[in-house]
Design a protein that fits this description.
Elements (H helix, E strand, L loop, with lengths): L11 E3 L3 H8 L13 E9 L4 H8 L10 E9 L5 E7 L2 H12 L8 H8 E10 L4
Antiparallel strand pairs: 1-3, 2-4, 2-5, 3-4
């Protein structure tokens, strides 16, 4: 493994029970074959000093017009230098694009949506990916 990667950061998180996580991500026994075209956004967030609770609250809110098919928010236990890991599943690239379009109107509204997350975080990173397996 060492020769195949440039770096590695193991991380441990606390989140919902596996059945709840698997259902939200579309990988549970009843959904795995139906969600092969899903798109996922994996995000990490580090709270600004004394803003951890408000950041968690804002990350737990669902925006109007949200087209996601499942969302999981987990808390950092050990590893990386962030406090929250979010995974959002969309049923398709079209649903992902629609969600991005729906969110544009709220992007710059003070104390809402993205601006609220920006107010309470000092760092965040998103990765958008399609599902490879199962």
């Amino acid at each position: 493994m060492r020769d195949l990667s440039a770096w590695l950061t193991d991380t441990f998180v606390n989140g919902p029970p596996w059945p709840e996580f698997a259902k939200a991500m579309g990988i549970d026994e009843g959904s795995a074959d139906k969600t092969a075209g899903s798109v996922y956004v994996v995000s990490v967030y580090r709270a600004a000093p004394r803003h951890r609770d408000p950041l968690e609250k804002s990350l737990g809110q669902t925006a109007p017009g949200d087209t996601s098919a499942g969302t999981v928010l987990m808390q950092h236990l050990d590893g990386g230098s962030w406090q929250f890991l979010g995974v959002v599943r969309y049923s398709s690239w079209q649903d992902f694009a629609t969600n991005e379009k729906n969110g544009m109107a709220d992007t710059l509204k003070p104390a809402e949506g993205w601006m609220q997350v920006r107010e309470h975080s000092s760092y965040h990173n998103d990765t958008v990916t399609g599902r490879i397996a199962p």
